[in-house]
Amino acid sequence: RSTRVPVGEDQVLHLELAQDIAQHFNKKYGEFFPVPKAILSTTKRIKSLRDPSAKMSKSDPQKLATVTIADSPDEIVLKFRKAVTDFTSEVTYEPAARPGVSNLVSIHAAVTGLSIKDVLHQATGLNTAHYKMVVAEAVIQKFAPIRNEIKKLQEDKSHLIKVLEDGAEKAKELAAPIYQEIRRLVGFQ
């Protein structure tokens, strides 16, 4: 019964489907479900490091195109070092004219929480080769606590299983009254 849902640009269609279902249900059975609104992040879509005209995707066959949380710092550095840019060494944000460099700026802004303008200010005087390493380091720093927590959880499988079981139980407790009310509204009870 969420009213606002954080989604990426490519999940908007899924949310629109949820909105349609909520509206149809409400029209037929009375106001029950709120119609959820999307909360879009400022970083709309991260592009592939190897093909900045395509979105970054875990299903990309090119291993150097996508950065994952599980990547080691060395892997992240390699992927950014090999990121496609152009022959101009200045760091600018011009998505249409310089998609590769602009993608790096977008990634840098996303992981640091800085604006594009602030990121460009910090990059003043850097060439793109050096800037790639700055972005790689920012990504490494952003992912480090998450990667460490994943490693810790993987080492304690019994704790992880307990967390999953507790989460499943809590989800059932939260869903049960809503499920029962839906059954009542549609006449199954």
UniProtKB/TrEMBL annotation:
Highest taxon of the source?
Eukaryota
> In terms of one coarse class, where is the protein primarily found?
mitochondrion
Task: Name where it's found.
Answer: Mitochondrion
Question: For this UniProt entry, what's an example GO CC term?
Answer: mitochondrial matrix
Q: Which UniProt keywords apply?
A: Aminoacyl-tRNA synthetase, ATP-binding, Ligase, Nucleotide-binding, Protein biosynthesis
Q: Which GO terms describe its molecular function?
A: ATP binding; tryptophan-tRNA ligase activity
Q: What class of enzyme is it?
A: ligase
Q: List the SUPFAM superfamilies.
A: Nucleotidylyl transferase
Q: Which GO terms describe its biological process?
A: mitochondrial tryptophanyl-tRNA aminoacylation
| EC number(s) per entry | 6.1.1.2
Q: Which InterPro entries does the UniProt entry name for this protein?
A: aa-tRNA-synth_Ic, Rossmann-like_a/b/a_fold, Trp-tRNA-ligase, Trp-tRNA_synthetase
Q: Which Pfam families match?
A: tRNA-synt_1b
- Family statement: Belongs to the class-I aminoacyl-tRNA synthetase family.
Stated name of the protein? tryptophan--tRNA ligase
Native source species? Spizella passerina (Chipping sparrow)
